């Protein structure tokens, strides 16, 4: 399924009250605003004295799919800013969703109790559906099926910018499950806003972007080069963005077994193809596609700045959409 978003509300420099559903809502100026507020949030998080920016605010986190980072960092972000959370993981078992309550009714209930709702769901388009069902509070898409994961893309952009001090004229490698990887779909949208972007797309042929997505993204000006072997990776790219093959999106396990871990980052691959300024990113979890021996390489940022930026960026987004910045 293609991941086009036709009806997204543009940010246009004003985040207050807006849903965050897709990177298609953002301009480079909007991303600049997020990055600037993120820098402030990093200082707040480092400060021993807790911030009261979100004092009196309650944020609902409702995750219909498992999560460590997105759930944990949103929860931490609210708490870092003095707010409170309603936390529901697995609502299919631990809420009235188990009794058959619809998504629309569930959203309208939690909009009555909180000031924003963060939702993860296995079906593409559900965050937009949740936004359509609510009137009074913003909805943040924490991952909708194979669709998008916009807050992850913003933290990935923050991580690239932190290293390279720019988001234009970048060359990157995006590897793994490009078909099902929602973080990939959002990050390509984000990077395609900047001039001079070249992305090498390394995947098994079964897991390439759909033709519709490839055409749609290419029209934006980003140069996309599909490759099927590590030998075709450029040397000295600015970043590598590795991803896991998304087992949960496969109808049968045999197909998954055939393509899982086709591309593995090893110290040898780093030596052969990465430059001294290449950063190795991964949205995580990783399931074997980056060997643990690579973790001590200072260019491997996935368990360092990338994961920490998740909390800072989500603090910034919450402060912006709740009108505190
Ligand atoms: N990157 C990411 O979405 O991780 P989680 O699934 O643990 O939230």
Describe the structure.
By secondary structure, this protein is an alpha/beta fold. 45% of the residues are buried. The mean pLDDT is 96. It is globular and about 55 Å long. The chain contains eleven helices and nine strands. The longest helix has 19 residues, at 28-46. Helix 6 (150-164) packs across helix 7 (182-191). The strands form two sheets. It has a five-stranded parallel β-sheet with strand order 7-6-5-8-9, covered by helices on one side. Phosphoric acid mono(formamide)ester (CP) binds next to helix 2.
Which keywords apply here?
325 residues; five-stranded parallel beta sheet; alpha/beta; binds phosphoric acid mono(formamide)ester; 36% helix; four-stranded parallel beta sheet
Structural class: alpha/beta
What is the chains' assembly state? Answer: single chain
Strand arrangement, major sheet? 7-6-5-8-9
| Helical fraction | 25-40%
What's this entry about, in short?
The chain contains eleven helices and nine strands. It is of the alpha/beta class and 325 residues long. The protein starts with 27 loop residues before the first helix and ends with a helix.
């Amino acid at each position: 399924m293609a991941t086009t978003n036709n009806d997204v509300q543009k940010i246009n420099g004003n985040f207050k009250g807006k849903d965050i559903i897709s990177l298609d809502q953002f301009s480079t100026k909007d991303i600049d605003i997020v990055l600037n507020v993120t820098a402030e949030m990093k200082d707040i998080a480092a400060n021993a004295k807790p911030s009261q920016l979100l004092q009196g605010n309650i944020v609902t986190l409702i995750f219909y799919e498992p999560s460590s980072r997105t759930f944990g960092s949103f929860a931490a972000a609210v708490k870092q800013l003095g707010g409170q959370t309603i936390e529901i993981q697995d609502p299919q078992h631990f809420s009235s969703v188990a009794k058959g309550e619809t998504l629309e009714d569930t959203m309208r209930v939690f909009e009555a109790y909180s000031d924003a709702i963060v939702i993860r769901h296995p079906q593409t388009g559900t965050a937009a559906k949740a936004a359509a069902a609510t009137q009074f509070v913003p909805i943040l898409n924490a991952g909708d099926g194979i669709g998008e994961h916009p807050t992850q893309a913003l933290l990935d952009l923050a991580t690239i910018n932190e290293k390279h001090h720019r988001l234009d004229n970048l060359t990157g490698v995006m590897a793994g499950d490009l078909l099902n990887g929602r973080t990939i779909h959002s990050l390509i949208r984000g990077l395609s806003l900047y001039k001079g972007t070249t992305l090498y797309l390394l995947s098994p042929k079964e897991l390439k972007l759909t033709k519709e997505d490839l055409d749609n993204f290419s029209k934006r000006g980003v140069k996309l080069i599909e490759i099927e072997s590590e030998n075709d990776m450029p040397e000295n790219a600015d970043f590598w963005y590795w991803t896991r093959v998304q087992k949960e999106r496969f109808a049968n396990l045999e197909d998954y077994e055939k393509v899982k871990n086709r591309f593995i980052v090893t110290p040898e691959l780093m030596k052969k193809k990465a430059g001294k300024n290449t950063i190795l990113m991964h949205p995580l979890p990783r399931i074997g596609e980056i060997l643990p021996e690579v973790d001590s390489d200072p260019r491997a940022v996935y368990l360092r700045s990338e994961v920490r930026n998740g909390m800072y960026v989500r603090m910034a987004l919450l402060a912006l959409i709740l009108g505190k910045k």
